[in-house]
């Protein structure tokens, strides 16, 4: 009997210990910390620039011009986040990150920069303020998470303030694109007309309208995803008690 027991023990497969999630290596972590610190500082510069310009002018009109250069620089710098996903040093989705980053870069350069007439619109300030607060919180969150010293206040802000900031930013973005439409149609900006040697046409005016329409299915998905994440991150104890 003892022999059979010993043989069975030898034959039984040994269960491997559960694998721990592999994070970025030391070099990648150091790079990500530096990147997120720089981006946090950059958006803080934008925030300070907005406040100083408002105090100097006593009005919110034309504040875009006071932060135009740093806004373009640091918003374009977010393109590196797509590369981080492709390289696998962050676990985020390449598709989701790519869409979020490219939509903002597009609005920065292809709409606000290109159509000078919209730069005085209040809608531009609406999305700039929403972006600025969101990015200061987001990059601070990533920095402290990488250092394993995440203050609860930053975590709470990351998963709470978006409730207001996301709709605020999207509203500003849509209104800005809408304001640009008459100028784009009048000038034929970025449009390609037939006939041409490539036998290809592109109407930028129509493209902007389709871009606005794309917000209808995409924004609710992103918004409700963040609401689910909020419930998961900020109320883990409640979830465990229900599961029990």
Could you describe the 3D structure shown?
The chain is an all-alpha fold. 74% of the residues lie in helices and 0% in strands. The chain has 10 helices and no strands. It has helices spanning 2-11, 26-57, 64-77, 80-87, 94-113, 122-146, 152-158, 162-187, 204-234, 236-243. Helix 2 (26-57) packs antiparallel against helix 6, helix 3 packs antiparallel against helix 5 (94-113) and helix 8 runs antiparallel to helix 9 (204-234). The longest helix has 32 residues, at 26-57. The two termini are 41 Å apart.
Termini gap: 41 Å
Mean pLDDT level: 89
Order of helices and strands: HHHHHHHHHH
How many beta-strand segments? 0
Strand residue percentage: under 5%
Q: What is the gyration radius calculated from CA atoms?
A: 24 Å
Report the uncertain regions.
1-20, 237-244
Structural class determined from secondary elements: mainly alpha
Largest sheet data? none
DSSP helix fraction = over 70%
Our count of helices gives 10
